[in-house]
Design a protein that fits this description.
This protein is of the alpha+beta class. Helices cover 28% and strands 26% of the residues. Residues 2-192 form the LysR substrate-binding domain.
Length: 204
């Protein structure tokens, strides 16, 4: 999300505010904002209890199971999460383990892990592999929405999808919030309202 969408907002801020300097870290690591001296961070999912931090929801994203028309022309389309065991599943790897795909079945959460021939620790690479027809992937809406609209990817198992997750700005509560940080957050909310860029139709 950072490279695809937040960086565009930062670039606009740098143009608008010539005196602004930004030090950006792109990482999936859960940083300690206070101990490591960060002004703010972007996180996805429900907030964790931490009285030292404040949070503001700026958008929502959904994990979407998908495959390319090429893959679906060569394999039967899965009708339920259980059918994924018969497919090449492209999983994201974190900390040496496959991250499960979560579905909603009969109002209960179901986690599925079916390792295929290809796993990796890059959502961008998983995206490219799914478009190339190498298997089924579950990827964030902010990564693949353009390809869903263009037909490069097809959503699967939509009726089993989990609810959308909040995308939040996190910042320390005890640190004085500088006017530039406050304005950065306000401008991000404004830019992503009424819907974030990946939900907006584009003629690109």
């Amino acid at each position: 999300m950072g490279r695809l969408h937040v960086l565009q907002h930062i670039e606009r801020c740098l143009k608008d505010w010539p005196s602004l300097s930004v030090d950006i870290t792109f990482s999936d690591r859960l940083v300690d904002l206070i101990d490591e001296g960060f002004d703010l961070a972007m996180r996805i999912g429900p907030p964790k209890e931490d009285s030292r931090l404040l949070t503001r929801t700026v958008a929502y994203q959904q994990m979407i199971t998908c495959a390319s028309p090429k893959y679906l022309a060569e394999h039967p389309q899965p009708q339920t999460p259980d059918d994924l065991s018969e497919h090449q599943c492209l999983h994201f790897v974190s900390g040496g383990r496959l991250l499960p795909w979560n579905f909603r079945v009969n109002d209960r959460s179901l986690s599925v892990t079916h390792g295929g021939r290809l796993q990796m620790d890059s959502a961008e690479s998983l995206h490219q592999s799914a478009v190339a027809g190498l298997g089924i992937a579950t990827l964030p809406s902010y990564v693949i929405n353009d390809d869903l609209r263009s037909g490069k990817l097809v959503q699967l198992l939509a009726e089993y999808a989990e609810a959308a997750e909040p995308i939040r700005v996190i910042y320390p509560s005890k640190r004085h919030l500088s006017p530039k940080i406050r304005l950065f957050i306000d401008k991000l909310v404004e830019a992503w309202s009424p819907c974030p860029p990946w939900e907006q139709h584009s003629d690109r």
